[in-house]
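Objective 1b. Sequence-to-structure analysis of Heterokaryon incompatibility domain-containing protein.
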Amino acid sequence: MRCTYCLGLDIQKLIDYAEVEFSGWYVPKSSFYQHYPSIHELEKSADGGCDLCALMIYAFKNSRSDDHQYYARQDSDLLSAIKDWVETSSIRISIQASHIYVAKPLEEAQMLDLLQISAGEYRETSSDPDESSLQEPPTVFLQLLTPLDRPLKLGRYDIGRFKTDVDLGSDSNVAIAKNWIDTCSNHHQGCPSPDPTSFPTRVVDVGTIDDANCCLLTPKTGFISRYVALSHCWGGPIKNVLLKKTLSEFQTCIHWDDLEANFQDAVIITRNLGLRYLWIDSLCIIQDDLDDWAAESTKMADLYRNAFVTISAMSSPVSNHGIFQTPIEVENSTPAAVDICLSSNNQTTVSVAAFSQGDRSKVEDLRWLYLYSPLCMRGWCLQESVLSPRILHYGVSQIYWKCCRGFQSADGALPGNLFPENEFYPALSSVLYSDLARDGDSLTIVPLNKRMLMDEFYELVNQYTKRKLSYWADKLPAFSGLAQKMHTAIGGKYLAGIWSKDIRRGLSWQKEMSWARHASIYQAPSWSWATTNDLVNFDNPDSFEDEENLILVESDIQLVNENNPYGAVRSGYIVVRGLTMELWRSQGTISQIELESTADFGSAQWDEPMFEGEYHGLTMRHICEVVDADTGEQSCFVEGIEAGYRDLLEATVPGLEDIESKGYKVLLVSKTSPTEEDQREGGHCIILEREAEEENAYRRVGFLSLFPYPLTRFKGWKTETLKLI
């Protein structure tokens, strides 16, 4: 049964309205399909048996009101909130495209796959007549779906996404995965050859679909074959790993019941893809043999780079969780999907369905997985993802694909809003896969541009510092595969995370959040980003002066494993020559009001707090330069506390007045010239503290931005040669 309003609805009508008014993810103000005049009448129609009205009511009832705080308390469902608070709740229906970004025009939409249902009108939230602030009406979404074997098109638009099988190990998902792999392997110009140039030291021989167990294969030298690599989260102890004492046993048989759930599923996937060999770290590296671990860790880059395909267990937090997770169960109260026609002249139908739990915001997509999935929180897995030329991602509700040509998902989503941003590194890809080109093909995705390559390196470091490691001692080893593959193109020396060829930018890392506390157990020299387990980012060098303000004189890095120059370090130092100035960090008061406009030169970003309870806000402190009134000579910088903030500190930090001022040295890393975006001159510096136990040696303790600071003032700085440890 269907009401008159729903009988009159079709996709072409919604497209006609959208061609009059459309803005990505926004509710149209005037061009929409007018449904019932109130939410109460919509609910009455649903209770009376209209299946499409029932879907809309379900969506409102199962959406929380958090995003509509103007309408109700946050603990109520949206349907109740609308009934209680919305004065006019007329139902308006429009069409949307999930793949486009907010506020984008209809011209950018290639697929229309959402019904947007709003209750009421835009609401003015500001009482100020000079300010216009409109609040969207409460809105929910229904999805448009079509079978995989029956894609729909109306005019220039694809209509609806494909229905997916939530059983990730199903035959239909295997067929989708095989199609992606075949298309990439045989038809993608610009993607690396599927044939490896090297083979792992050991692999799991998964046998065939009919085999009960597996075994560990240690191939003879020169053996080459296609193999699969697994990228996964350990998430704690694994019940059966490769040890010295189990090596011989594993080579005979690895019993199925001894495999963790993730590994069992990875074996099934490998078999279903028609492949025989699978690399899993815990089963292919001898876990209690430091020499074997050291040797295999140096091969990690080539191992993932040469894999035919990498299985990415994105949503599995621990090894015993399983890649094929329990299919999502739809509540019995969820209305079944219904069909509506494409147009009055085209009786072909598309399915309209509620989202799982009724709320579109709870739906999985690959962009969300790249931001929040367990695998993407793990440090080791960044290089595994970047190095792998072909990746089969397993989420909770569907499978996804990534290769050099882009992303795909089982539901047929188009590139854009549902896929990750900035996950492709064209300069790095050209370096990684240059020797894996197919016959007659070129893998030079972009001409080698060292500046672009360095930009990608620093972006990768930033992404890497957002992730966690089970053992922070792996800070450099878990990034070593990427550094190893970039070294030939960059040149120079790799110095515990930074490049001698780009020393200025390498030293210019800054905290991204509150602090960049240095690890209590040694991981790297104080001047390397690897010294901290907090988030860091790097300055954009567009404004750097061409003049080399900092010169690398000498360097020495003592490695834990001499065979891996990109891995863990025991100690290290660099000797640099540059311009310096003294800095005093004081708890004294400096009033912004009393300063001349040119006296406040910027801000210091300390890696660690000076005292318990110190706030990291940069605006609460001021950097001033002390100048001789008679000669104009600069003597030092002083950092003091803003007067208003001092009152707050004294109330929360006992003994603040007893904290003594402390002296530091500031080392200029780069001068910056005016740009179109920022006309100020200035400089970037690192803040150094003298090492008590070693003469003329310093440790980094912070970063200093001097803006505005006339470049001519650097003439008053002192040139020194310093050892940084």
